[in-house]
Specification:
This protein has 135 residues and is mostly beta strands. The protein contains one helix and eleven strands. The protein has a single domain, classed as Roll (BH3618-like), CATH 2.30.290.10.
């Protein structure tokens, strides 16, 4: 099985997560690897296996917003596992205190099925640019 390297971490294509609809803004990104960032826990890379050089920093929003509980559509319950695999994209700012996360468009992952989906919570009070808590 082929192996790729992301930030000097090897990752097997057999562990790829399939995104049937791609990622918002990147419809051709159908396969991705979730790669831990050991020196920057609780953050991960979500790295495309289809588009070279395309990767996002993501975090489980419940690590920084313990009350985060997005509603998931019933038709996706068989694909996603909202109890375990929820991630949001982090928008890094040159001024770390202005870094935000997109709570309005979470990424749901089902590691057992190796499937993922990103949803837009259109009827939600969650923000596209929620500031990270300052600790």
């Amino acid at each position: 099985m082929p192996v790729i390297k992301i930030q000097e971490i090897e990752y097997s294509y057999g562990e790829a997560i399939e995104f049937a609809a791609g990622i918002i803004g990147f419809p051709e990104m159908r396969r991705a690897a979730l790669v831990p960032m050991p020196n920057f826990e609780p953050f991960f890379w979500l790295a495309s296996l289809d588009i070279e050089g395309t990767h996002f920093i993501v975090v489980d929003p419940r690590e920084v917003f313990p009350d985060y509980r997005p509603q998931t559509p019933a038709e996706l319950e068989s694909v996603i596992n909202s109890d375990k695999g929820i991630f949001v994209i982090v928008k890094i700012s040159s001024n770390w205190k202005k870094t935000t996360v997109n709570l309005r468009a979470p990424i749901f992952l089902n590691n057992e099925l190796k499937k993922g989906a990103q949803l837009i919570l259109s009827d939600s009070e969650y923000r596209l640019d929620e500031p990270l808590p300052q600790n």
